[in-house]
Amino acid sequence: xxxxxxxxxxxxxxxxxxxxxxxxxxxxxxxxxxxxxxxxxxxxxxxxxxxxxxxxxxxxxxxxxxxxxxxxxxxxxxxxxxxxxxxxxxxxxxxxxxxxxxxxxxxxxxxxxxxxxxxxxxxxxxxxxxxxxxxxxxxxxxxxxxxxxxxxxxxxxxxxxxxxxxxxxxxxxxxxxxxxxxxxxxxxxxxxxxxxxxxxxxxxxxxxxxxxxxxxxxxxxxxxxxxxxxxxxxxxxxxxxxxxxxxxxxxxxxxxxxxxxxxxxxxxxxxxxxxxxxxxxxxxxxxxxxxxxxxxxxxxxxxxxxxxxxxxxxxxxxxxxxxxxxxxxxxxxxxxxxxxxxxxxxxxxxxxxxxxxxxxxxxxxxxxxxxxxxxxxxxxxxxxxxxxxxxxxxxxxxxxxxxxxxxxxxxxxxxxxxxxxxxxxxxxxxxxxxxxxxxxxxxxxxxxxxxxxxxxxxxxxxxxxxxxx
Length: 469
Fold this sequence. Notes:
The chain is of the alpha+beta class. The chain has 3 domains: 34-274, Aminopeptidase, CATH 3.40.630; 280-347, no CATH class; 360-465, no CATH class. It is built from 13 helices and 22 strands. It has helices spanning 13-22, 77-92, 111-116, 159-170, 201-211, 231-238, 255-270, 290-298, 301-305, 349-356, 385-393, 406-412, 458-465, and strands at 40-47, 53-59, 64-69, 101-106, 140-142, 145-147, 180-186, 193-195, 214-215, 241-247, 279-280, 287-288, 313-317, 320-326, 331-334, 344-346, 374-376, 381-383, 421-424, 430-435, 440-443, 453-455. The protein has an 8-stranded mixed beta sheet, with helices on both faces. The chain has a 4-stranded antiparallel beta sheet with strand order 13-14-15-16, covered by helices on one side. A 4-stranded antiparallel beta sheet has the order 19-20-21-22, with helices on one face. Strand 19 and strand 20 (430-435) form a beta hairpin. Helix 5 runs antiparallel to helix 7. It starts with 12 loop residues before the first helix and ends with a helix.
């Protein structure tokens, strides 16, 4: 980058000439990054050969560390562009990040090489051949053949690699998993490639499935030619989790590809969801897999349950632990000892919400049976009008028959715990609602006729009130 020097008036021409002669020999003035987006912090972890700052942007301060880096080769500028765009994207979705996380973005590992459009740093060293691995060599090999001195005079001879290794080493903690590092490279036509490295096959296969890139079959590195002294080799030696991704070409990725990479980072690296058959959602970053996914898809998907808002997790249910997953409108619980479709059941969110609010549903006013309504003597409440229409037409698929049986409606919503009654919602709006064992229905008279009665986002509301969302 250009160097700026101020010359005071009164300097002689000889001084100016002398300064110009010395200028190429002096290190470049460190160029500070632009202001970090709100919620992020800029960290300078070292300086390049020519004095350019080596910088990371960090979201969060939790003990678990994920690092995403680009442009370790200066000729691969599209990787720097991708990481910078990921920074901008994650600045807008910080509410989706795990609370125990520190997320580091390093757009440019090799700023001197990027400035020149060169694969190598200012000393002519390939920064992905300069790591202290068991196979380091002073000469390197790339697609053009053998490169004398490409590995540097010694492992970590270059400030760029030494500084990044020191940063990664400093992030180790006995209280958290080893740091995870993803380094973007280019190019591997036609589909790109996710290399397994030391992150493990479940991680890279899940990442590849979301991004649409190919996944390597195993091994820690690149197989097209011999790679020595690599980041992955060092990670293998010191027990860190690292992998590389080769973009298919050196063009900047499309917006659709950016979104896929962002979803893979969020779902796989940050929330650690790696099931082989999973379906992930950019809106929340969470995934569905296995029986939870098939049940969700067979019973109305987002319209019935909403999007997933947690990972699948184990919780105590009586004397046993059950796999459960929360959704915007429901909580699904897995009972594998039951035959389908009874192996997945809905949590009693309506009753749980009332309990959380310290409201005894048994104290709600009861009603007498009415001809135009469906009366439930078990709880002493009627379902009438639009609420009854929705209750009778909405349910889980239990019998494989067309239409919705009463058993299927009960399986989804449960018995009524109240008659229709006005209440103020958490957003301050007052509407008519009716409580059920597993749900709450709301009546919105200003909406379109087929959208006036709707299921509350009771899962999201309950988790938020409990401080778990």
